[in-house]
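Dear all,

This email documents one entry for the complex benchmark we are building for the journal club exercise. For each entry we list the sequence lines for every component of the assembly. Then comes the predicted three-dimensional structure of the complex as a token string, followed by one or two observations. Please use this as the template for your own entries, and keep the labels exactly as they appear.
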Amino acid sequence: MRMVAKEVLFKILGYMHKKQIHDLIEKVLKDLGISQMPSFSVSYPPEAKFGDYTTNAALIAAKILKKAPMEIGEKIVSSIKYQVSSMGKKGIIRKIEVAPPGFINFTLKPEVIQKNLANILKQKDKYGSSKAGKGKVVVIDYSQPNIAKRMHVGHLRSTIIGQAIYDIYKLEGYKIKGVNHIGDWGTHFGKLIYAYKNFIDKKALKENFIQEMNRLYVDFNARAKEDEKLNDYAREETKKFQEGGKENVKIWKYFVRESMKEFDRIYKIIGVKIDYTLGESFYQPMLKGVISEALEKGIAIHSQGAVIIPLDKYNLPPFMIRKTDGATLYGTTDLAAVKYRVNKWKADKIIYVVANEQAGHFQQLFKAGELMGYIKGGIAEHVKFGMVLGADGKKFSTREGKVILLEDLLGEAIGRARKIVEEKNPKLSNREKEKIAKAVGIGAIKYNDLSQNRLTDITFNWDRMLDFRGNSAPYLQYAYARIKSILRKSKASKGFKLDSKLLKNEKELAVLRQLAIFDEIIERAGQERMPNIIADYIYKLANSFNAFYENVPVLGAEKDVRFARLGLISGVAIVIKNGLKLLGIETLERM
RNA sequence: GCUCCCGUAGUUCAAUGGAUAGAAUGCGAGCUUGCGGAGCUUGUGAUCUAGGUUCGAUUCCUAGCGGGAGCACCA
């Protein structure tokens, strides 16, 4: 019995509509004698007057049949009309039309989207979830800060894009493993250890570990310019620590411990929690095996004293896995990590959320992984994102000290939000103001990033990132808080009966239409690994809610209509909340 | 030199090959006797250039111009 009820629920979700329409058209095309139909799309029309769904099937079929698109469109429509009439009450379509140049537009029966509201209110936090990924393991590699270095605005992108993709997949029912592949093994440790032994300022280190370590690194590089021998010393220190020299390992462990404390503090502020922290050091015991395996299989060769995997057949530079001095490097570690994730974790998919700049490295890595037999094409994927640029249009660079620390950015955001809360809502308790300031400030920063297509570079601009008006997280949070305020005032008893048929004016239907497609949006965002699709959707939903809010009274309406509208705005609140949660943005009862 | 990415209103960003290229911000004009004005309505304003494919191109292809990134012993 329960199963039946659930199935009915799923049937009224958005993607079911789309699929139903798609199947219907396919069937009709077959009847028209087109069996080899190239793919056509069923999508949302740009304007409400074109209905709920639109398809370009007639335009494509016209090409094959060499007839006018409008003519084919009419044929398809009359055929569909016949099908629909035979479906009787069960059909979801109310109106079908052809519009020039040949689009076929479908308008659903209002009941279809009206009924969905009850579904939302019932599912609450679960609305939008699915079982699409059941049984599949996805590994997401994101954030990846470097030990003893500060996290700057560049790290933010990988961290929050990765977390958003993680949450989307989780909602779709995948078994998912988030990994923080921290940089805890590189050769820069030699420099740091040498500098630590020789020019450390212990007092400064105690006050602010990361800051002092950063100073040390810059200091070392400056001194090494004067005295080249320093680099040799550093190499020796690296070697000692990588070979397990007690003193250096102890220092290294101390670096790792202190850095992780710092990172965890920042992760806590931005609400990120990564399942596994498995840095480069974790894979060290496996590296020798990987190198000899590659040599035995004849995939790797010795070249100029190093060990490389030649990839010139694939038009790629060689992939180095052992340096002339015998040391391994990040490519070796990454290759071992691929093996580990596939063999140990049975990953069906590995997603690397790493900046654009490393596209070349990942091409090499994936090809090397395939040659080694660890992965088949397509299992590993580099989810790239653009750089954070300075006002000059150039990349932020540590050397020039132009970098903006993540912590400073977060602090500034919270501070600005706090000021506004103070203005808007002075009567709230300090504790609540703090909470609001955090949610608004952090939300604004995350949204500013996640609402943009991840592939394009973003320009760093304090005012832009921290604008709380317009298309921003606070705008969405504000719509949510308004709804909550209305609901508080309504004192609606929990058991009121929802008659969603009463929601029939244009503004109400527009909101309902938005609500019904949430699952399709999630699906697409997941497929394309594009969180901005979700951001864009919530923004549009909030827009349609605001238009409704300005024109349609809720509390002032007559009894049953009032209940229906309260139900509607509750639904909007649920979807805004669920959507923002996927972006890692909190919602607030008041702000 | 080779490879990859990107050129959209003044600015910052959208746009699965589709209908009138959509927002935000800026500047201009409005909206309070109702639920939160961090809001709403409205005006202004853009696809780098030249070809090609297509019924249809911001999107795909070619060339050019402009910006950025990468190109074995860093990650």
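Observations: The longest strand of chain A covers residues 93-99. The first helix of chain A runs from residue 2 to 11.
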